[in-house]
Amino acid sequence: ASLCFGRVDYVDCDVKVGDVFVDAAVRQWVELQLRRQQPEAEPLSFCRPEWSFTCATYDSLQKHFAPESFDWLISLSAGIVSLPCLTFLKPGGFFLVNDSHGDASAARTAAAPLLLRAVHVDGEWSDDALDAYFVTVRGAPLTRQQAREAAEVG
């Protein structure tokens, strides 16, 4: 995320993950990649990435962050965090989730569906026929209960 966004707050419940964010070699690698993306930039105009790491579970984030703090929330393999974490998203913000632990299914089957678009393998976005992605093996629409049960098993 630090290759795309100038300021990133990373959160994980494993304190060992924080070691990555204090490692000077990691910071140097990120800065090198950013310089390669902007080779024509003047050295003084190069923006150093900013990041922080918070060791927390998603249900304890209110101790660390204020409501509506973020323009983007990105959940990759974190479990079903979209619903409890929405309070931290600014109005008009974006929540990017995958479905490896059922988060996209939970967002899509919420009382007020949250999932608005899908990104295909080729990188194209679509906002039509999303229900086609969230079906059972028999092709029936996925229910909220089924999404919860699948997440508990997974």
Helix and strand layout, with pairings?
Layout: E1 7-12, H1 18-21, H2 24-37, E2 50-55, E3 70-75, H3 82-85, E4 89-97, H4 103-108, E5 118-119, E6 125-126, H5 144-153
Parallel strand pairs: 1-2, 3-4
Antiparallel strand pairs: 5-6
Structural commentary:
The protein has 154 residues and is of the alpha/beta class. 25% of the residues lie in helices and 20% in strands. The protein has five helices and six strands. It has helices at 18-21, 24-37, 82-85, 103-108, 144-153, and strands spanning 7-12, 50-55, 70-75, 89-97, 118-119, 125-126. The chain has a two-stranded parallel sheet with strand order 1-2. A two-stranded parallel ribbon has the order 3-4. Strand 5 (118-119) and strand 6 (125-126) form a beta hairpin. It is globular, with a radius of gyration of 18 Å. The two termini are 26 Å apart.
